[in-house]
Design goal:
The structure holds three protein chains of three kinds. In chain A, about 65% of the residues lie in helices and about 0% in strands. Chain A is an all-alpha fold. Chain A has a domain of about 180 residues: MetI-like (MetI-like fold). Chain C is an alpha/beta fold. Chain C has a domain of about 190 residues: D-Maltodextrin-Binding Protein, domain 2 (3-Layer(aba) Sandwich), CATH 3.40.190.10. Classes of the chains: A mainly alpha, B mainly alpha, C alpha/beta.
């Protein structure tokens, strides 16, 4: 059918093949994209221009044109704050563990739900696991303080029952990150599970039939049909989560941390918040936001390029 | 041999049911406590004496919230917002994800497009620039400010495009041979086969719109334009007022509102309890219309 | 064919993007270029009406009426608990009508937003040049607006139009109130005023527990410490379980420890006058260390909640309501919250206030912060900035002026309205006023009048507001109505909040002010958050058992990490006062 032709106009230098099947005009495809494109141009790219305030000493009353340009000063200010290094480390540590934990739990639970035969049971479980998502961290922090209390909390009751010393989780810098990570996973694993479950349902049933004919056990089916079938979505969600690697969860930590746990719990966002209490900190917040976005962007680009180069797979 | 397999399988099933039930229970309990608090007396709630059952049962919190006439009105506005918001967002998502799911050799610009979208998922101008744009376009003080700017949910688009890719290409090509174009292909082939994903996204989108309150507060001028979540969060509730510095005793007295807060949370979770089972009929294994020989 | 299609697509795309970006860039520029562009939208019929008329009319009459009426754009802070009579709303109510009737000012509302989101809304308004003509802002917004020259200088307006009463009230607390609104000698806003003396700290103790343990009332701070220990170890609630402790504190070290600290003459976060006439920062003084030493001991002994470090004020209040401890350092409003909660759960809970005394017998001084946290300002360039002053004048006049009537009170302060169920409900109409400048002496006056009426039965000396308090006090005395207990404990016969304030603090002038009432200095904006964090961390750690040497290290760190610089900036400001 002819040797592969090099596409000189291609933005991404990937391999391609001449497609011998009939081509139909792609104009309809362009048209389908443009409504969305128009919307993001106005409502997303427009405001992005406002990020110029990260490089200014921005006064809302003076506007963008009236505020002084100060280059990287805002960034320097944040990076030089005594607490910044610690906050950055905490952010990465907590965010990465949350990311991994979420994936593992969501995938496992989705698989387990899939194994349960009774449809009504499946639906009930699916509905119930989404519920914690609706609780705000304000409420949850109250609940967590209660159940983790070293004197009256149920968790410590269990711990002392087994003969150990009670642990003051929320005041202990060794345990605080774990509390944060685990409670967050509990709160939002329902989300990932639902998505993975939808992915499982999209797997072609014919593949399962074929596996049955070949005499596969349940476990083998999971390993060879379900998991590979879920893989694209798993990779996708993992990659997109990488984009949030500097977002360790402001709302949660703000409600749960205290001066004792600043050391292990202070994240970039809580640091910026406290700085912002002293002055209306538009510029600094914009600078930090830009920094976080830039890192996310780099991570997602890297994942995309790696997947494309080494597996010829486009994540999106 | 067969017996062993059956018994092992049955044991696993039993363990699975038990495990999943425990997990579901763990997720349910806090909400049960919330409901119990919302139905308790404020004295008991303030003292944190309510565990899983109401103490001094009463409906006051719901009464108070529901008897404000604005409650019904804002509920109506929320419903309209969800219909408009989910409708517009899902339409855009279904539409945009389709071309982006095609391969580059078929649709050249697709990679550029996809990065244009992904970029805005990561970079945000922030509250003030966004407010200024929305104001410039003239959407402030209308319900469209809550619907249009968020219509493009890039995460959803990227998710859906992956699901589209799972649909066997042969189906589309069969359609082309029969004379269908891309448009028909999308609506007749891809959408029906991606229903689990689409149902999931409808669910997330609806929940998002129901619970979103901040945008209503920022973009709408009058309290009588607020959707329910904004109304509950801002007008019905009092929170985080620094009581130690106010000398206005009357104001303080009325701010104890733990039961109100609990009622608000329950109302926030209510739609999922009602709507989700409804949507679950779409969570069925993919229907492959006939089979296509490769 | 493929190539062509590809190119066309891409060119088209780039063209569209370029146009869109250019369009947005242009419009965002023009949007920022000026309030002049924005204002026609703001004051819809403004220019047409207000241009000529206003100035000649208002010769210098504090209550001069504009004729024809002028339109003033403002926004209202809708508190969640604010009620409105049927037919009324934030935009149209007794106050808006009064403004129009008495002053010829038509208030038009650009938005009405609840208190918690007030800041976000204002920030966004400031940023998009959408500021109303007259608006209430907080102190950091005030500083910003002053620096970017966005609000009007009210000095002249104040000097010409302020009523005598307004001037009198603004001079209270050693002039600190108006001082906070003054930048470089110019008055930039009018702050609301509430009796600052209401911030006075006192210690609330459960008398029923004292009685259970056969302990007498405390006569000194040492007694209080002893009582606290007894509450922890001697089972004061008589239920046989060691489930109580002495003193309630929470993770907000600044607010919850202020009372305790003041007994040691320690005033963290306050700037105090020292012997050499300069200002020094309270947190780094040796008195603070002494207080922390004692707190550390109390923590060790379980006299303060061992979990205080993770609990916020709300959580601590739950413990109050649940009867977990018996001593709380609070202020005059404490009976309403959280103590009423305690009473509701345990009818025997008899919380009484006691004045704080010092540990070493020196004269006690309770800390007062006279700096207002919000200001009513006028946008720069508005035709009639003096409406801000007149708004304050009107409020004062209606309640404290010579011609104030009961009718005024019953309409504009607390109105009795049909509740639709055959009875009457009370509506706090005073909450609708744009700025509320209260008579700073009214709280003590209320206490005195209420008690006088209680003793001689003559209620004609009571103002209408005082009548409300009197009624509540009487109601409790007659029927032990739980919801009235709060007022009883605040304004009623001794021991009550104001009996403590009036008979001890006022009598002995036991007050010390935070001397720094200016806006944040430059180094403060940069470094204060770091320093505050360090302070909270160190104090909490010390209380929970870490070595007291940490305090000394904190003092030197504080100075070297910016505190020294801040102190000199503060003193620079002080020298100019």
């Amino acid at each position: 059918m002819g040797a592969p032709r090099k596409r000189s106009h291609s933005l991404w230098k990937g391999k391609s093949r001449v497609n011998p099947k009939p081509i139909i005009p792609t104009l309809p495809l362009h048209l389908m994209v443009w409504p969305g494109l128009l919307l993001i141009l106005v409502f997303n790219y427009g405001p992005i221009l406002g990020l110029v305030m990260a490089f200014q000493k921005f006064y809302p009353a003076r506007g963008f044109l009236g505020s002084e340009w100060i280059g990287w000063t805002n960034f320097e200010y944040v990076f030089k704050l005594p607490d910044f290094k610690r906050a950055l480390w905490n952010t990465l540590y907590i965010a990465v563990l949350k990311l991994v934990g979420h994936q593992v739990v969501s995938i496992s639970i989705a698989l387990l739900i899939n194994e349960a035969a009774k449809v009504i049971f499946r639906r009930a479980v699916q509905t119930l696991i989404y519920l914690p998502h609706f609780l705000s961290w304000v409420i949850l922090s109250g609940i967590l303080i209660d159940i983790l209390s070293p004197s009256t909390g149920i968790v410590n009751d269990v711990i002392t029952f087994f003969g150990f010393e009670p642990i003051f989780f929320l005041a202990d810098n060794r345990w605080f990150p774990s509390v944060i990570i685990l409670s967050d996973i509990w709160k939002d694993f329902g989300f990932g599970t639902i998505v993975y479950f939808a992915a499982i349902l999209s797997i072609n049933p014919a593949l399962y039939e074929a596996a049955s004919i070949d005499g596969a056990t349940r476990w083998q089916k999971v390993r060879h049909v379900t998991l590979p079938g879920m893989l694209p979505i798993v990779v996708l969600l993992a990659t997109l989560s990488l984009g949030k690697v500097l977002n360790a969860g402001f709302d949660q930590i703000f409600n749960l941390y205290s001066p004792i746990t600043y050391r292990s719990g202070d994240i970039i966002d809580t640091l910026v918040y406290r700085v912002g209490l002293e002055q209306a900190q538009f510029s600094v917040a914009a600078a930090v936001g830009l920094f976080k976005s830039a890192i996310s962007f780099i991570m997602i680009c890297a994942s995309y390029v790696l997947a494309y180069r080494y597996a010829n797979y486009r994540i999106f | 041999m067969r017996n062993y397999k059956l018994r092992a399988g049955a044991m696993f099933d039993a363990a699975n049911y038990i495990f999943l039930s425990l997990v579901a229970l763990l997720c349910l309990l806090p909400l049960v406590q919330i409901v119990a608090i919302s139905l308790s007396s404020s004295a008991a709630a303030e003292a944190n004496l309510v565990k899983l059952w109401p103490v001094d049962f009463n409906w006051t919190a719901y009464d108070y919230a529901a008897h404000k006439p604005e409650f019904i009105r804002s509920l109506g506005i929320s419903v309209i917002r969800i219909i408009l918001g989910v409708g517009m967002s899902m339409f855009i998502t279904i539409l945009v994800a389709f071309p982006l799911s095609k391969e580059s050799n078929r649709f050249r610009t697709r990679t550029l497009y996809v990065w244009l979208f992904v970029f805005v998922m990561l970079f945000h101008g922030g509250l003030i620039p966004t407010y200024m744009i929305i104001k410039m376009v003239g959407l402030t003080n209308t319900i469209w400010a809550l619907v249009v700017p968020e219509a493009v949910a890039v995460f959803n688009i990227v998710l859906l495009l992956n699901f589209y890719r799972a649909v066997p290409k042969e189906l589309e090509e069969a359609g082309f041979i029969d004379g269908a174009g891309y448009w028909k292909s999308l609506w007749v082939i891809y959408v029906p086969l991606s229903m689990p994903a689409i149902a999931t996204l409808i669910l997330f989108s609806a929940v998002g719109h129901w619970n979103a309150w901040f945008d209503g507060m920022i973009y709408l001028k009058k309290v009588d334009q607020y959707p329910l979540s904004t109304y509950l969060r801002t007008v019905v509730l009092a929170s985080n007022v620094d009581l130690s510095s106010t000398t206005d005793a009357k104001l303080i007295a009325e701010l104890s509102s733990r039961t109100l807060k609990a009622a608000q949370i329950f109302l926030g979770a209510l739609p999922i309890l009602l709507v989700y089972p409804f949507l679950q009929r779409f969570f069925v294994k993919g229907i492959v219309l006939g089979s296509v020989k490769e | 064919m493929k190539k062509r299609k590809g190119i066309t697509g891409r060119v088209l795309l780039v063209a569209v993007i370029a146009t869109m970006l250019a369009a947005t860039a242009c419009s965002s520029n023009s949007g920022n270029k000026g309030g002049d562009n924005a204002s026609p939208q703001n004051s819809a019929s403004g220019p047409a009406v207000s241009s000529e008329s206003a100035t000649p009319n208002t010769e210098a009459d504090p209550f001069g009426k504009y004729d024809p009426a002028i339109i003033v754009n403002t926004a209202v802070n809708v508190s969640p608990s604010t009620k409105y009579a049927p037919g009324e709303s934030p935009e149209s109510n007794v106050w808006t009508k009064e403004f129009e009737k008495d002053l010829g000012i038509k208030l038009k509302f650009s938005w009405s937003v609840p208190s918690e989101q007030w800041n976000d809304k204002i920030n966004v308004a400031i940023a998009s040049n959408d500021l109303p003509d007259m608006i209430m802002v907080n102190d950091s917004q005030m500083k910003q607006l002053v620096e970017s020259d966005a609000i009007a200088d009210l000095t002249e307006a104040y000097n010409k139009f302020a009523s005598p009463l307004l001037k009198k009230y603004m001079q209270s607390y050693e002039g600190k109130v108006l001082g906070a609104a003054t930048f470089d000698g110019k008055i930039m806003g009018i702050p609301p005023l509430a009796p600052v003396v209401g911030q006075s700290l006192m210690v609330w103790i459960r008398k029923d527990w004292l009685d259970n343990l056969g302990q007498p009332d405390p006569a000194s701070f040492d007694d209080i410490l002893r009582i606290a220990e007894a509450f922890t170890t001697s089972d004061p609630d008589g239920n046989g379980k060691p489930d109580t402790f002495g003193i309630g504190i929470n993770k907000d070290t600044v607010k919850s420890l202020a009372g305790f600290m003041s007994a040691y003459n320690a005033y963290p976060t306050y700037w105090l006058k020292t012997a050499d006439g300069k200002l020094a920062y309270g947190s780094i003084q040796p008195e603070t260390k002494a207080a922390l030493t004692e707190l550390q001991q109390l923590y060790k002994d379980g006299v303060v909640d061992k979990e205080f470090g993770v609990k916020d004020a709300a959580k601590m209040n739950e413990d109050v309501a649940a009867g977990k401890f018996g001593i709380l350092f609070g202020n005059q409003s404490t009976p309403i919250s959280p103590l009423t909660g305690s009473l509701k759960n345990d009818p025997n809970a008899n919380w009484l206030p006691y004045p704080i005394t010092t540990i070493d017998g020196s004269p006690y001084r309770t800390p007062l912060n006279a700096k207002p946290s919000s200001f009513l300002v006028a946008k720069k360039g508005v035709k009639n900035p003096e409406v801000v002053v007149k708004a304050a004048n009107l409020y004062i006049e209606k309640f404290y002026g010579e011609h104030a009537t009961a009718d005024d009170y019953n309409r504009l302060k607390i109105a009795q309205v049909d509740d639709g169920k055959g009875g009457k409900m009370k509506i706090e109409t005073f909450l609708y006023a744009p700025v509320r400048v209260e008579n700073p002496d009214k709280a003590i006056a209320a206490y005195q009048h209420v008690n006088q009426a209680l003793s001689d039965g003559k209620t004609d000396i009571l103002t209408v507001e005082e009548q409300d308090y009197y009624d509540a006090v009487k109601k409790y005395m007659e029927s032990k109505d739980v919801d009235s207990w709060g007022y009883y404990r605040i304004y009623g016969p001794a021991p009550s909040s104001y009996s403590v304030i009036s008979d001890y603090y006022v009598k002995n002038n036991s007050f010390v002010y935070n001397e720094f009432t200016g806006a944040a200095t430059d180094t403060m904006s940069q470094k204060k958050s770091t320093l505050d964090k360090m302070e909270a961390e160190v104090f909490t750690q010390i209380i929970m058992g870490e070595s007291l040497d940490k305090f000394d290290k904190f003092v030197s760190d504080w100075k070297s990490l910016g505190g020294e610089q801040i102190a000199s900036e503060v003193n620079e400001w002080y020298a100019k006062q």
